[in-house]
Amino acid sequence: MKRQENSMRILIVEDDRTIAEGLRYSLEGDGFEAVLCPDKRSALEQMDREGFALYLLDLSLPDGSGYELCDYIKARWEAPVLFLTACDDEVSVVRGLDMGADDYITKPFRIRELVSRMKRALRQYGKAQAAEESSRIGDVTVYPKQARVMRGQEEIFLTALEYRLLLVLLANRGQVLTRNQLLEGIWDVDGSFINDNTLSVYMKRLREKLEPDGGNHRYIETVRGLGYRLREEGENGK
Q1: How far, in Å, CA of 208 to CA of 217, rounded?
Q2: Where is the OmpR/PhoB-type domain positioned along the sequence (predicted)?
Q3: For the segment 114-164, what is each residue's pLDDT rounded down to a tens digit?
């Protein structure tokens, strides 16, 4: 998986020319260089010619969908993807996030909020790229650059959200993170479609996959009344 080189170059895939031009004008005022594509075909051609720091994708395109482009991007590059769409039902939001999208913004939106979310996503990717070549969690090894999690020679397969949750914990190893901090780190959204039960489900799944006894809190500690903490190397869990 390749990293994108230009730290401020953005690809906007939007078939509404008025919205696209308005976005480009606003983002260029914030120091971004925006390239516009009206459909899936031209977006794929543009992506294969040059790298981008971040992708803004409309969901409904004349010749495909933003979901398809998100899959293409996430399979090839380490860069955030934000969906811009008028479709705000929970099923669509969860589908987008589960396939690796970094944020989901519904139209109409406030440009200052969009810019803030874009910068937050770019900061999160900057932290991830600065991570070590590998990190150990007990008998599990995490390779951030390859987005792989291994136990010995066996790969542990995580969903996009489970993996992102793991990266947030790793980036703050030894620190207690509140539930709100974890939600912000995973989705970079205001929590409109996320609740405590959702986080609990993903945490439970992550523990079951990482921990040798299937979720015994040996690696990820629950700090009652506060949140969660990934134990330091060498720390013994209960």
Answers
A1: 9
A2: 132-232
A3: 888 888 888 777 655 544 467 888 889 988 767 789 988 888 988 878 888
User: 12-26: per-residue pLDDT in tens?
Assistant: 999 999 999 999 998
Helix (H) and strand (E) counts in the chain: 8, 16
**pLDDT tens across 202-232, in order?**
889 999 999 877 667 789 999 988 899 998 8
Cβ–Cβ under 8 Å, residues 135 and 128: no
Q: What is the CATH number of the domain that holds 66?
A: 3.40.50.2300
The answer to whether 166 touches 149, Cβ cutoff 8 Å, is yes
Identify the domain containing residue 44 by its residue range. Answer: 2-129
Domain stop point among 109, 129, 149: 129
Largest CA distance in the chain: 58
pTM of the model: 0.53
- Tokens describing residue 48: 């294969």
Question: Which residue among 99, 129, 159 closes a domain?
Answer: 129
